[in-house]
Amino acid sequence: MTLAPDLLRSLPKVSLHDHLDGGLRPATVFGIATEIGHPLPADSPEALGRWFAESANSGSLVRYLETFDHTIAVMQTPEHLRRVAREFVEDLAADGVVYGEARWAPEQHTRGGLSEADAVEAVRDGLTEGMLVCADRGHRLQVQQLVTSMRHVEPSTRIAELALAYRDQGVAGFDIAGAEDGFPAERFLPAFQLLKQASFPYTIHAGEAAGVDSIWGALQVCSANRIGHGVRIVEDITSNDDGSVTLGRLAAYVRDQQIPLELCPSSNAQTGAVASLDAHPFPLLDGLGFVVTVNSDNQLMSGTTLSHEMGVLVDHLGYDLDGLERITLNAAASAFLPHPLREELIDDVILPGFEAARG
User: Fold this and answer.
1) What angle, 0 to 180 degrees and rounded to 10, lies between the N-to-C axes of helices 158-165 and 189-197?
2) Domains in the chain, start-ordered, CATH in brackets?
3) Is 142 helix (H, G, I), strand (E, B) or coil?
4) Is the C-alpha dihedral spanning 308, 311, 315, 317 positive or negative?
5) Computed from CA positions of residues 336, 342, 345, 350, in that sequence, does the dihedral angle turn out positive or negative?
6) Which of 116, 177, 229, 282 can pair with 208 through a Cys bridge, CB separation 3.0 to 4.6 Å?
7) What digits encode the pLDDT tens for the residues 89-140?
8) Sign of the CA dihedral 203, 205, 211, 217?
9) Could you list the active site residues?
């Protein structure tokens, strides 16, 4: 079946895995880069957008991550960070998102003299401006920060402490991101222990560029609340000759403990975590009872939106409106929000929105 793009955009959406520095508008990157004299591999916003998409389709996570050199370069002042954050919210609202989490690494935004705290405050202010602008336009949404450490740097608790310092100012959680293979989450165990002791939630990138062992470390050593990507958990699931499947110990644990998986279909195919969109294990995991959620990962690099990712599920993986509602409810229930607010989001926004879509 297929669902019209306008219908998909109208659906209320929850975005859990979306990188702020991967969601800039091409025109914004081009404009700020021109202003600050940063060289770009294209001579117009349109050509730049194509360059990002072509680079992201290389099939290599390393090449994919290299595209961030240009977005991070234009996010080094309070004004530019606020602008990027404000536009990020506006773009989510235009796509029907009602709750979002913007993850980014403050340690990458200090080249111009900002402290990491200055950077967090600039993004905080930009997200707030965006939410106010959208509310004035009649679309209310909440967007919070996930403060991230880069996993390839020397591990410390510094960024975790920063996240805790701003936990009552729009920072909803913590993450580690970047080159996954060779940099296990366990390196940051003291940071995760600090967060756990402070009763603060966190997600961990795992099971994308690295396999099942990375998911095991993120969960069984570092006690992650959610798994960023996690698509390679299928390597712990065996297909039997009679058509049934057998879950390994870790896969069974992820399912039975209902650990949310932040799956990103287009990105997973682009980085080689899955062979193709048609081969994505999203419906397999969903059918087995895993808590799957759909996400855009990097809107600029993947040339995508959350509506587009829903369209991928429909066009490539056989989803219908009921299936999209189910995974949206998964996402809302997995948000780093207080439980009463998650219930309110579900009862007052998600369920009525999908009911309206059914006509």
Assistant:
1) 20
2) 5-357 (3.20.20.140)
3) strand
4) positive
5) positive
6) 229
7) 999 999 999 999 999 999 999 999 999 999 999 999 999 999 999 999 999 9
8) negative
9) 208
